[in-house]
Every structure is written in structure tokens, then in C-alpha cells.
Design goal:
little secondary structure; single chain
Length: 79
């Protein structure tokens, strides 16, 4: 359960047609469904390159509730 004062850090959309997008997670944070770090060459996530395209299908980094602050920190670092 997410407390009201922290609700901006977590959103789980169980109505999404792709839910669950990653197996094995108890909760999936859908706030960063499309990873804001995708464009970074080294985003720190579990990705692989397939036919010259970054494949993040095995990465759960942006979907873990406790990673919100880390993701925002890495986004801010660019500016």
C-alpha cells in the first residue's frame, strides 16, 4: 500500500493490456513504463543490444518502487 504523501512516486496500472510487463515482481511501478533512461548509452539497467537496438525487456529497474528517487536523480543529472 502506498501512502498518500508518496503516491506521486508509484502508480500501478493493472488495467493495462501489457500488465504485467515483467514477471517476478510483486509490485510494478508503471510510472516509468517507457524508461526515461532508454536514450542513455549506459543507463545502469539490465539491457542487451539486439540487431543494433537496445532491448530492455529483461530490465525491471524503472518498475521497482524504491528506484523512483534514483531514476529522478539520473534524469536531473542530464540538465
Amino acid at each position: 500500500m502506498v501512502s498518500i504523501n508518496m503516491s506521486y512516486k508509484f502508480f500501478e496500472n493493472k488495467e493495462c493490456r501489457y500488465y504485467p510487463c515483467h514477471e517476478g515482481l510483486k509490485e510494478i511501478n508503471c510510472l516509468f513504463c517507457y524508461c526515461p533512461l532508454y536514450h542513455k548509452e549506459d543507463c545502469g539497467g539490465n539491457f542487451k543490444i539486439v540487431d543494433k537496438i537496445k532491448d530492455c525487456s529483461d530490465c525491471t529497474k524503472p518498475h521497482i518502487k524504491s528506484n523512483y528517487d534514483l531514476i529522478v536523480k539520473l534524469i536531473k543529472k542530464e540538465f
